[in-house]
Each structure stands twice: as structure tokens, then as C-alpha cells.
Amino acid sequence: MSSSTCIRRFSRLSLDRTAHPPIASRSLLATPQTSCFSTTAAQHASAQGKKGMAAAPKRGARTLNIKKNKKDAAVAKKPAPGERKAARKRIVLSNNNALEVETLTDMDKSTALANKHEGQVKGIPDAVVDALRAVEAFKRSQGWSMFRRPATLIRKETTQLAELMSQAEGGEEGKPKTVRRILTGERLNGKSTLLLQGLTMAFLRQWVVINIPDAMDIVNAHTEYAPLPGSQPTQYSQETYTATLLSQIAKANDKVLSSLTVTAAPNIPVPFPAKGSLKQLAEAGVANPEASWSVFVALWNELTQPGRPPIMFALDNLAHIMRNSDYLSADVKPIHAHDLTLISHFVTYLSGSKLLPNGGVVLASTSKSNTPTVSALDFSLEVAEAKQYSPNNMPQWNPYKKADQRVIDCLKDIKVLKIAGLSKNEARSIIEYYAASGMLRAKVDDGFVTEKWSLAGMGNIGELERASVRLRL
Amino acid sequence: MVNLWGFNFPEQTLVKRALKTFYGIGPNVAQGIMARFHIHPYAKLGTLKNATVLDLTAELSTMKIENDLRREVQENIRRLKDMGTYRGRRHAMGLPVRGQRTRSQITNARKLNKIERGGSGRVQM
After folding, report:
1. Do B37 and B53 reside in the same domain of the chain?
2. A376-398 pLDDT, tens per residue?
3. Partner residue opposite B38 with nearest CB, options A222, A326, A330
């Protein structure tokens, strides 16, 4: 044995004794050759080299087989048609884990429009909740599912709206009026909730309520449309949407419409009994969607006869109806939303070119989420705001922006109801309600209220709810 | 099943998708046809009225689609070949027609350039 081999053996033994296999053979040639003074043990080196080259498993041997996208027919059961949409649209209005608020009282007919409840949280009566559900006034993004039952804060803007509604009813002098307003305000400031409060008051006062819950659904070309025969320029009716709206009207205004009967035979292409109620009329449109637009017109004519209740005509997400819709005309040009019959009907009353003879409110709400930018609408609202709040500082039209003349014309003399943040007292009231519901576990004092009010960007109610109820720190 | 121009489609098929199955109708043509008959883009065949389906069928039968269109394209190619043009020869050989290099990447030419372009077509019922 030469001396160099001896050193090699010695180095290997000393470097990694454990990794070295027990020396079975005394022969030097049988041991694997490794480089001198390498710190990698011979066994480790060979194991690494063999990676991925393992022999195929023996026949009959079970191997581990984990596939990522393995389909299991038993697990992946397809949901029934409409099931996923129903789950997506489900509205939860109560939380059994929240405490019952002892002091919470409901709004009622006699005091619905009075201003003495300003700054208090008031419950919505069950019958009205059903009606509001029928007209899809509750939104999923609102926090109804956190409390025992639906209740809202009567804020300053709510009393302003109530005041407008009592003017519409005729007030002291008894002359009904048509009030037209657009609700504006920052994101999460409670525009849709104020609209809901308006609907609530209208239901309580037994008005006829017609609500278009989201204008996007009319214009996004998801329902049938057809040109209206004999219209010049061509208007387009949407039979499915109108039929759905009629069914909502019939369901929500059940009591009012059942008590009213038609004054004259309605001009509709379906048979109708001579002294039928208005509810029957609406239901005729639901049963025959192809006649739904003419039924809607007939119903509107009946509702505007003398002696009928005032009308609350409301629409959320206004910007969608102030531009071209996704529908196409026969020559493959986009149809302007104002050419859709239902929208043109709404816009006629919103612009004030027609008035409600029995009084009523035409209420539209803008939205700050999922809404298109319509420069003509934004400008019209800026002008309206400036007229009301700062007449010396009128905005100028940016000539580089595209103007939609139809939008500017219809919003020429509109008024806005601007929704600002809550006052500290209102914030305190709603925070106390959160605490009484058990959803907020903190001592409610001035410091706490001020902190939350400031965190919520000076009383933005949506942010306030986020900061105090939804967010758990 | 809804019968559209001699072909059966399940009722839940989108009208647009059904139209696009025909050789010669793509997204734009389908959109144009649907706009002409006031069918909204998400309509399904089952929701159409019978009259609309008949109108669509009548409209489709006035158009040059499916086998008529295939025949026209094939005739154009055959004409080139019969004249003995370079383009005709390249079509017949399944090689690029418009001067592309053939060293690599001529899969589309191999797939498409043939005398019987577009296949033999579907059979109407």
C-alpha cells in the first residue's frame, strides 16, 4: 500500500464516519472513488446523482399518485340552475346572535314624516320590511345582517326628505306637489340607505311605490328588448324587465293597489274584468309579459287619475341611464338609454316635463361604486349643487369633454339632496345602537365617539360602521 | 332542441354561440344578425319566439355560409391550381403561399393550405 492511499482512507474516515458504509470489502478497488479531501461523503454524492432515476415500480406494487386537478365525480356536483345566483343575491336581514335592543321603536304612519325623531335609530316595521324586500331596496353590501332586525338612523337628510315628502302630499294648504331630487354624496355616505328610508316612509304613508333597484340591470342588455310599434323616433320596450317590475309593484303595494279599481277599461291586449283592481291589472302584465309595457302604461294612467295616492318613483345608480345602453338597434348602433321606454318614462318625470297630478317624489340616487363616468351627469350635478349651495361659484364646462345633450337637457333644472357626514350627535346615537345590539363592546363616551367619527372621515356612516362594527382590532 | 337552419341545438345554447358554429359566421356577423332581429346578446335559443327562429333561419338561408362558402373558397383555390400558378402549387403542397420562409413554423400552412380547404362540411337535416 502506498502512503497516498493510506492518507485518502484516513481522510475519509475522519471527515464523515457515519456516512461511510461499514467496510465490507477490504479491497480498496471496491470502494467508490471520490476526490481527495472532499467534504461530501461518497454515499451522499452518489444518492444525489441518482435523483429522478429511480427504477420503475414493480408490477402490482402500489405507488403514490397525487394529481393536482383530479376530478371526483361524486364530490363535484353541479348546482341546480339559478342556485348560485340565488346564493349570490341572498339578503340576510337578521342576526340571531345580536341582542334585541329594548329601546328600539318602529317608525309609524303618523310620525313617519315628523322631524321629532331626528338623531334617533328607528326600526322598520315588519310589513314594510317585506315590501322593501319585494322592491329589492336592501343591498347586500349594507350591514343588515349584523343586527337583530332592520333599523335605520333618522339623520338630518332623512328629515329633509321627509319634509319634501310632506310637501308632496300637499302639506297644510293641501295642494299636492311633484318633488324631484337626486341624492349625491361621497362613497359609503348612505345614499342608497336614504333612498330606502324614502321608500320606507312612502310605504308607511301608503303611497304607491315604484322602485328600480339598480339601473344597471335595465341597460346591460341581459333581458329581451323589442322596438315599440308606432314610436317615432324608435323606442324600445323590455318585456321581461317590465313584467318583473310589475310583479314587484303588485307585491310591494298589495294593500293600496287592491283597494283601487280601474276607472275605465284599460287599453291592453289581454282580457280584463270591468271593475278589476289595480293589483289585478299589474298581475295581468306579469302573466302576459308580451303585454307588460302596455299594462304598465295603463297602470300609470290609472294611478294618475284624480284622488289616487301619491307616487314614489325611485331609481338607484343613476349614471347607468345617462349614456348609451348595451342594446343594439337594427343597424347595429348602440341604443341610448333614454330610448328605452321604462327609462324614458322615468326621465320624463325626473326632468319635470311631466308632473305627478296627485303629488309624489321622483327620487334618483347616484352611486360611487360600479358606476360609469358620465361627464354630462357629473357637470349637471355640480351645477345643481352650486346653484343651491354656492351660487357665486358656478362651474364651467370643460370644452374638451364630450357632452351628451340629452342628459344635459333632462337635468337642466334638477335639484340635489347632498348627503354629508353624520354630526357627532347622530354618530353617538348610531354607536350607542351598535353597543346595545352587542355588536360593539366598548364604553361609549365622548372620546370614543369622537375617535370613531374622525376615523370615519368626519362621520361617513359606512366608514363608521366599518370602524366600529365590522373591523375587529 | 331548437332547429336553426336545419341544425338542432340544445335550448340552453346562447344564440350567439349557435350562430357562430356556422362556417362563415364570426363574432361580428353574429352580432349584426342578432341586432337586426333585436335579440339581446345573452339570449338563449330556448327563450326565442318561434317567429324569431323562423326569421333567423330565413336570414341564414339568404347568406353565403357553410357548404356554399366552403365550395367558393375551394373553387378559388382550385382555379389557382388549374391555372398552374405558384400560389396554386403551394396550396396543393400544403406550404406557405405568400413567400414566408419554410425553415420552421409552417404549422398553419400545413393545417390549412390544401385544395379541399375547410373540410367536407356538415350535413343539414
Report:
1. yes
2. 999 999 999 999 999 999 999 99
3. A330
Distance from CA of B73 to the nearest CA of A (A): 28
**Predicted ipTM?**
0.87
Please tell me the distance from the alpha carbon of residue A278 to that of residue A296, in angstroms, as a whole number: 11
Give which of A240, A328, A341 to mutate to test B binding, by max B Cβ within 10 Å.
Answer: A328
Whether chain B has a CB inside 8 Å of the CB on A227: the answer is yes
- Cα separation of A346 and B116, whole Å? 58
How far is Cα A45 from Cα A39, in angstroms, rounded to an integer? 10
Domain of B36? 2-62
Last residue of a domain, one of B62, B77, B100: B62
Pairing mode, if any, of strands A334-336 and A360-365?
Answer: unpaired
Nearest CA to A295 out of A238, A246, A232, A339 is that of A246
| Of A438, A441, A437, A383, residue with least CA distance to A408 | A383
Give the pLDDT confidence score for residue A304 in this predicted structure: 95
Q: Roughly how many angstroms between the first and final C-alpha of chain B, as a whole number?
A: 13
pLDDT at B8: 93
Residues B49 and B86 in one domain: no
Same structural domain, B7 and B42: yes
Q: Give how many domains chain B has, as a whole number.
A: 2
Q: Is A329 on the interface with B (CB under 8 A)?
A: yes
Domain contains B99? yes
Write the DSSP string, A406-429.
HHHHHTTT--EEEE-PPPHHHHHH
Residue whose C-alpha cell reads 311605490 in the numeric block: A209
B8 and B56 assigned to the same domain: yes
* Per-residue pLDDT, A24: 46
CA-CA distances (angstroms) from residue A313 to A343, A356, A360, B60? Answer: 12, 10, 8, 44
The domain that contains B107 carries what CATH number?
Answer: 4.10.910.10
Q: Residue A429: pLDDT above 90?
A: yes
Q: How far apart are CA B68 and CA B24, in angstroms?
A: 10
Angle, helices A341-351 vs A292-303, to 10°: value is: 20
Our measurement of the distance from residue A147's CA atom to the centroid of its chain's CA atoms, rounded to an integer in Å, reads 19
A226 CB neighbours in chain B (<8 A) are 38
Task: Count Cα atoms within 13 angstroms, Cβ side, for A411.
Answer: 30
Same domain, B97 and B52: no
A298 CB-near residues (< 8 Å, 6+ apart): A266, A267, A268, A281
